[in-house]
Amino acid sequence: TKENLRSGEMLVCGDQWPIFLYTQYIYDPDDPWCGLLRSRLLVCAYKHVFTSPSSVEKEPKATRSGNARLHGMTCVTIASISYIATQVRFALSSSSVFSRTDTTTDSETFYHSLLDLLEDPEECQEVNELLTWWNRQVFPTSSAAKRPVSANSALSKIRQKRLAVNHSSNLDLVSS
Known about the structure:
Elements: H1 2-7, H2 40-50, H3 67-70, H4 78-92, H5 107-118, H6 124-138, H7 154-175
């Protein structure tokens, strides 16, 4: 199989997600959300790119501001997670040139398949938990790293109701 991948006889589609996306590189086919996009490799790559290479270490020693600070980035976004996952996937591939239209790595499909999941309104609870987890890893002092809203709180109920209303409105628009 490895030789078929190297030779190009076998291609991995962009919607086939690699194991490095998962905590401790363990994929649970019965619960694909379990550990998804929570690997140490992704967090280290994210910090390397957005906060500074030294921020990956326990005791950061950066002497300059990282990209996040320079660009006013105070929280993790679904696009930035998808971007880093795409960059790591490419770095681990045997391709020598990054291109969004490369059919060998299928990077564009990979990136968009992650975005499709993370932008799906049906997945908002998991995505919100994921973003909170990421913000605790990367921006622990930011307000975006806050605790998740309690499921039975008034705020949670208001948000659930708003989501249901918006979802219903979207369905009405589609059917008309």
